[in-house]
């Protein structure tokens, strides 16, 4: 099953072909380098390596005008300006949850294809998705036309779910940040959810969001007392994940509005991220109002 837009298909094909290689390349790259990413997080060897690999390949695609990543400060200009031509901008979190490398837990690669120059609103996305490096490698690709889950093997992608839809009955939740750092209104909401759903938190956004897509429920990384803007990045994490979950029939929110309608100021802006079944995100917004 391919995507009808040839540029988007090239982007997703490049990422899916690279995923097997990235997975294999993690071996021997579990240490850290003496550098921080633009968000001030210590970089793993694998973060830097995966960013260079994806950056080189995605920037070379005809019709990709910009490449940006969580792991580099500046946007790479690689052709036409996405705001004035039919080119797209590709934003990537090359290795989401890379702190899980040390403990050998799940990680992912997140991508968003924006029909606008970065930083851009999420409602300019034409496609978004992720690779999940779990016991097997899977990929979810969402466009205007489809939201499909694939298994990846040897560079091939095989459909496992043609139309990913959030289950109507929510089962799992996962909330990031230390509980004493949660604002009171979020803590009160979390207490209610804890009594209704089952905790599943793995520490990689992609792993945790894929549980929500599979079982129904909600994932949240809220604004914190110590950092009201939260932890996750709007361009590389919030928007692509918001797009995927909304396409699967759920909702996304920064606490008060869909992530896809948030105006970005800076490429590396952080935002509170909440995604999941509509009823749960509506309740969250009521609790924070
Ligand atoms: O990319 C940031 C990230 O690793 C996400 O994948 C994950 O959801 C979050 O940070 C985990 O943060 P914490 O270690 O605070 O639970
Ligand atoms: Mn990440």
UniProtKB/TrEMBL annotation:
The keyword Zinc does not apply. Mg(2+) 1 binds at residues 70, 93, 95. Mg(2+) 2 binds at residues 93, 96, 237. Gene3D superfamilies: 3.40.190.80, Fructose-1,6-Bisphosphatase, subunit A, domain 1. The lineage of its organism: Archaea, Methanobacteriati, Methanobacteriota, Stenosarchaea group, Halobacteria. GO terms for biological process: fructose 1,6-bisphosphate metabolic process; fructose 6-phosphate metabolic process; fructose metabolic process; gluconeogenesis; sucrose biosynthetic process. Its main location: cytoplasm. Residues 167-287 form the Fructose-1-6-bisphosphatase class 1 C-terminal domain. NCBIfam families: PRK09293.3-3 (NF006786). It catalyses: beta-D-fructose 1,6-bisphosphate + H2O = beta-D-fructose 6-phosphate + phosphate. InterPro entries: FBPase_C_dom, FBPase_class-1, FBPase_N, FBPtase. Substrate binds at residues 96-99, 201, 231. This is Fructose-1,6-bisphosphatase class 1. The keyword Metal-binding applies. Binds 2 magnesium ions per subunit. It comes from the Archaea. Its cofactor is Mg(2+). GO terms for cellular component: cytoplasm. Its EC number is 3.1.3.11. GO terms for molecular function: fructose 1,6-bisphosphate 1-phosphatase activity; magnesium ion binding. The gene is fbp. Homotetramer.
């Amino acid at each position: 099953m391919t995507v009808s837009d040839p540029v988007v298909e090239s982007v997703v094909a490049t990422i899916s072909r690279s995923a097997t290689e990235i997975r294999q390349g993690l071996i021997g790259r579990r240490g850290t380098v003496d550098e921080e990413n633009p968000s001030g997080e210590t970089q793993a060897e694998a973060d830097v390596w995966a960013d260079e690999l994806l950056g080189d390949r995605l920037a070379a695609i005809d019709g990709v005008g910009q490449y940006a990543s969580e792991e580099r400060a500046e946007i790479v200009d690689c052709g036409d300006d996405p705001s004035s031509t039919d080119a797209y901008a590709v934003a990537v979190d090359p290795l989401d949850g890379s702190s899980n490398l040390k403990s050998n837990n799940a990680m992912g690669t997140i991508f968003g294809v924006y029909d606008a120059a970065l930083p851009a609103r999420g409602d300019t996305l034409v496609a978004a998705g992720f690779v999940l490096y779990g016991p097997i490698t899977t990929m979810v690709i969402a466009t205007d036309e489809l939201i499909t889950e694939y298994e990846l093997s040897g560079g091939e992608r095989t459909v496992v779910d043609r139309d990913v839809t959030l289950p109507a009955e929510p089962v799992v939740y996962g909330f990031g940040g230390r509980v004493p750092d949660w604002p009171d209104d979020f803590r009160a909401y979390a207490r209610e959810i804890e009594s209704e759903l089952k905790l599943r938190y793995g520490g990689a956004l992609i792993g945790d969001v894929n549980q929500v897509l599979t079982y129904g429920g909600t994932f949240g990384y809220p604004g914190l007392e110590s950092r009201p803007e939260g932890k996750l990045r709007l361009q590389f994490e919030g928007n692509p994940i918001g797009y995927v979950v909304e396409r699967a029939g759920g909702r996304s929110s920064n606490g008060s509005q869909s992530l896809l309608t948030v105006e970005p100021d800076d490429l590396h802006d952080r935002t509170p991220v909440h995604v999941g079944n509509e009823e749960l995100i509506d309740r969250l917004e009521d609790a924070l109002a």
